[in-house]
């Protein structure tokens, strides 16, 4: 039984996102995703004119007669939300945290999928799998997903993107549209400094890219990067203490120093460039969202772009 105060908050999110869902469904959700996959139906004897690429060689070898595979277009999608709940997601300075943005985004996507008669599931992760809910249909199911995104209390204290991918590939066998929602700060990658940590960082990034390639071969992956303005630039407010949300390390920073602010921005930009370069090598098209921003217009533009590119 869901407590009444929890149910009220879930309902508020449901109401707040309902108009967004209608806007998305009248836009490009259907044309950007619907019917893009095919699934095997049966085999039949080869006929003159059939595409030789559809020959089922296993059946042909057993029967000594050529058979071809028949496929049918999938009439519904399996939509999966792969959501990062690591400690850095709790950060936010623009009237909401990244986790609040993630929850509203996830709720909007889940409700859009259900209203389009698609199944939707959820995997929440940190440096471990916090919750996995297989895809289903129905409004009650969506309410459960919203509740988990709102109130799941993560056990993990770091981020492990590779472990999240490995678990996802083991549990999701049907080709799916995967909305991978994270700040992609690569918190599990060692910080720069010593030659050893640089080697560790390079190896970790290579391992992550290999796992991402496997995920991309199996699924239609949409990385959604959630961020906050203060992750890219510091305000000029004097001495402040900055705490790393995953390591707990605290550092005193003089934001009154122009050199310090420029160095902070340079490091942030370098990290962002490395992430975007990895996505480019994978031919992934990320969507960037910031705390405090409205999410509907960026989603619509993204879906229109996918539609034009024939994804």
Written account of the structure:
There is one protein chain. Residues 187-196 have low confidence and may be disordered. It contains nine helices and ten strands. Helix 7 links the parallel strand 6 (177-182) and strand 7 (220-227). It folds into two domains: 4-30 and 76-309, von Willebrand factor, type A domain (Rossmann fold); 38-73, no CATH class. The protein has 311 residues and is α/β, with parallel strands linked by helices. The strands form three sheets. The chain has a six-stranded mixed sheet, with helices on both faces. It has a two-stranded antiparallel sheet with strand order 1-2. The two termini are 41 Å apart. It has helices at residues 4-25, 29-33, 57-63, 98-115, 139-151, 161-171, 195-218, 258-282, 296-309, and strands spanning 38-45, 67-73, 78-84, 119-125, 129-136, 177-182, 220-227, 239-243, 250-254, 287-290. The chain is globular, with a radius of gyration of 22 Å. Residues 42-269 form the DUF58 domain. InterPro entries: DUF58, vWFA_dom_sf.
Question: What is this structure, in a nutshell?
Answer:
The chain contains 9 helices and 10 strands. It has about 300 residues and is of the alpha/beta class.
């Amino acid at each position: 039984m869901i407590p009444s105060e929890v149910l009220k908050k879930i309902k508020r999110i449901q109401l707040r996102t309902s108009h967004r869902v209608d806007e998305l469904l009248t836009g490009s959700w259907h044309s950007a995703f619907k019917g893009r996959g095919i699934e095997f139906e049966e085999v039949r004897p080869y006929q003159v004119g059939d595409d030789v690429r559809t020959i089922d060689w296993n059946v042909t070898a057993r029967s000594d007669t050529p058979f071809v595979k028949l496929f049918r277009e999938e009439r519904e999608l399996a939509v999966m939300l792969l959501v990062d709940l690591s400690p850095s997601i709790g950060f936010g300075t623009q009237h909401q945290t990244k986790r609040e943005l993630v929850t509203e985004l996830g709720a909007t996507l889940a409700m859009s999928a259900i209203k389009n008669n698609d199944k939707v599931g959820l995997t929440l992760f940190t440096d471990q799998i916090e919750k996995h809910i297989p895809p289903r249909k129905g409004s009650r199911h969506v309410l459960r997903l919203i509740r988990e995104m709102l109130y799941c209390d993560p056990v993990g204290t770091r981020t492990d993107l590779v472990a999240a991918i490995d678990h996802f590939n083991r549990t999701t066998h049907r080709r799916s549209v995967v909305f991978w929602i994270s700040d992609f700060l690569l918190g599990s990658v060692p910080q720069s400094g010593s030659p050893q940590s640089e080697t560790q960082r390079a190896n970790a990034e290579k391992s992550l890219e290999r796992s991402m390639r496997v995920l991309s071969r199996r699924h239609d992956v949409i990385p959604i990067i959630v961020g906050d303005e203060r992750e890219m630039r510091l305000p000029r407010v004097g001495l402040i203490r900055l705490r790393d949300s995953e390591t707990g390390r605290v550092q005193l920073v003089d934001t009154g120093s122009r050199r310090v602010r420029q160095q902070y921005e340079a490091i942030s930009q370098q990290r962002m460039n490395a992430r975007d370069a990895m996505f480019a090598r994978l031919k992934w098209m990320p969507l960037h969202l910031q705390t405090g921003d409205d999410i509907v217009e960026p989603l619509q533009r993204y879906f229109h772009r996918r539609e034009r590119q024939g994804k």
